[in-house]
Amino acid sequence: VDTYDTLEGVRKVVRLADEKGRDFRVRAVRLDSGDLAGLAVEARAILDAAGLEDVQIFASGGLDEHEISAHAGRWR
Predict the structure, then answer these.
(1) Residue 15, CA distances (Å) to 5, 40, 51, 66, 73 in order
(2) Which of 16, 46, 62, 68 is the least buried, fewest Cβ under 10 Å from its Cβ?
């Protein structure tokens, strides 16, 4: 998803899914910068509101086991 405006990137995915219908199937989005936990929560809300509950969210970019553990509760 767009690094400069992550949530706008998620909204673009929603628009594409709406425009293309069955011709467009997104399985996941990847977040790689910023407040990954907070962005994941907001991205999930955007995707869910658009009926894209099955789309997975992946976070990457400098995460270590301590950061993952600290934020795991926020990602659920």
Answers:
(1) 15, 18, 12, 35, 29
(2) 62
